[in-house]
Amino acid sequence: MMTTLAYIIAYVGIAFFLIACVARFIMWTKMPMHVRWELYPVAHEGGGKAAYGGSYLEESDWWTKKREVSLVGELKVMVPEILFLVALREHNRKLWTRSFPFHFGLYLVGGVTALMLVGGLIVGYAPATVAGPIGAAIGFIVPFIAGAGLVLGIIGAVGLFLRRRSRALRDYTAPADLFNLLFFIVAFGVALVTFVGYDRDFSLVSGFVTNIVTFNLAPIGDGTAGLLLTLSVVLLALLVAYIPTTHMSHFIGKYFAYHAIRWADDPNLPGGKQEAAIEELLSRPVSWSAPHINADGKKSWLDVTLEDQNK
Amino acid sequence: MKQPNSVKDLGRRPGEPLAQINQLEQIPLPPPFDKLDEEPVFGQLSDEAREKYVVLDDTIAVNIEKPTTKEEEDRLVNGFLSGLEKLFSADDNWTFLQPFEMSMEHCARCQTCSDACPIFAESGENELYRPIYRSEILRRIYFKYVKKASPAIHGDIDLNWETVARLIELSYRCNLCRRCAQTCPIGADNALLSREIRKIASMEMGIVPREIHKDGSVLQLAVGSSTGMTPMIVKDNIEFIDEDTAERTGIAIETPFDVEGADILLIHNAGEIMAWPENPGAFATVFEAAGLSWTLSSEAVAYDGINYGVWYDDVQFARVAVRHAMAAKKLGVKKIVLGECGHAHKALTVIADKVLTGDLNIPRESSMVTLRDIIRSGKIKLDPSRNDFPVTLHDPCNLVRLMGVVSPQREILEAVLPPGRFREMAPHGVENYCCGGGSGFAIMSGHNFQDWRHRMTGRRKFRQILEAFQGEPMDKEHPKYVCAPCSNCKGQIRDIINYYDAWEKAGIYYGGLVELIVNAMVDANPGYVDWEWH
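^ Those are the sequences you sent over. The predicted structure of the assembly is below.
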């Protein structure tokens, strides 16, 4: 019964995570076009301009020229930023020493989970594929990466917890911030205890993941091992479901913070595709109440903009 | 140094300043200004002002009168909450909804941005001026009083009229330079939140510093310019500037007005015409020498490139931007070129990019680019030895960090200065520090606000200027030039130099960029930069 419940919670947790992430992504995508608010350097500026923070606005008659937009330039910034949190390392080294192991630990745990899910599918549906050296290699790598991820995650989360309790950050810390980190510490801690104490070859957890992807709800492990594995699964599933409901979903928001705001320098060229969208925005009603706005909730942005202030 | 202990203090300690700076505890400036006890004395607020207006710290920018009845108190609180809700509306705030919500939701309050803020640094790290102090209060008010979320999730805050009034006042302790946003690992923009607080105050509650609204954008829309110049006066002034410039350079010029079909509509910040006539005079000299097809407009609003709405009010912003574009459309020009004014650049080129459509969507270009092209064309002959003095360059935030126009002004300086005379500030380019006059501060002068500005917001820039000139003899006999290609920055730098008496004590002078071009023109009489303090 307990095991079945663990399977159900795992399915629901993963499904909730995916749905919530997609919903968040759609929420940011659906927001109306905003005015340009870019911040230089803009990584995709071509012609060597990104290196010193220059833009296409440095070109004379820029609207007549083809813009040089470099995807490679973006990747050169985004990949190190995602993997190594470069901005934090550059501007806040003290926090980076805590945040980097935490995030890198998450990447390793996330990566190894994905690896196990794929491995589970193969084991479930094409077991011959992983027989021999490939299976042995995966069997060696998975526990190593997972262990490293859990340890790094716990070290980072404890460091961040203590940092949030420091004099500098205490006043800017809500109880939920501490709860979030504690949640990570407890969930990763139980998983680590299970791994070190009862499942060093990862056979139990791999079996569980294989059962998940093959929809086989058979019990895994017994006694303390089974109990700890069940507890680990439940805690991790709840954590995964919880993340996108909090500001920890910044891994989605950050994409938009960079691509839709900081680096959003696409010009609205005369007769171009943006003009229709802008005209729709200018037709929206304004309800700001200050007398000089002269809005009534019905007048549009265009109406209040074109009102002759001399009258 | 007095400072708040907590974000919750904003609504507590009624009538008491939450922060006070002891000038003897500030970080000393480089020599010869390194004696804190020899610096000008920080003027104090009058008792009358403290009695009448809401008190936040050592100064007052907004002049919010203390409410005298419960109804007035409620009006402040309810007006603020109503405006805050509208910031989340896709109708009322489509202009900034996504960047605003991003910063409200995803700031991790990690304080990575704190060190980037020159005000926080020069205040001795006073908590009140920490970039996230005001934005954290805004977040807590929103989540607790609008979204009705548990304070356990987003933090607690008391909400009373004093919280609201002080928060509005506090939004005018930020230059909106966005240096903090540049360092944020997540992409949150706490400077934007300062601007959005200003928007609530202006667009919902009608509370704005007089200098930027009544005497600023309202006056500009009513008579044509925040300087008060009408079309007739501006034409008279330009005529006088042409005569004066011709006398100084020996080159006859006549600034064209309202030339239909000209290639370029040049829009100056009208403050240049009033306070620094050598700047429009230099533009006319260079443009004429290069044989450009250009014109000024005598249409109201269009001869003043300022757009103060960019600091506090989206509707005022749009009104001015549209009037600029309408004048260009009327003349049928091919492009608008923005003179030496940073916020006018950003307002019309970048922000208005998502406002102007159809036949109002007339291309805009920076004068840095136009001037650079003239230099490249070789149409004017230059003698860099005429600029044989140390020059440092101030990077206006609006032009550089927020527009990416970095290299043209440097290319110009390389052409008009002798080798070895240019000194970069540290840091410079997109990592520059604000002059301290950004977001309207350069024109705000009520009570002792100028003193606060010089000691808090402009001090980092003055420090940079002094550092750039270290190694030079620091006296009036060895003049040095701070090149500030932005009218507001220039005004602020003038005020800092005045405040510290840096012209008399260290020979530090200031001016625009185009003046250095004319000063190096072979065809012009030498001495366009006259080193006469004004």
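Chain A has a mean pLDDT of 92. DSSP finds twelve helices and no strands in chain A.

Shout if you want it in another format.
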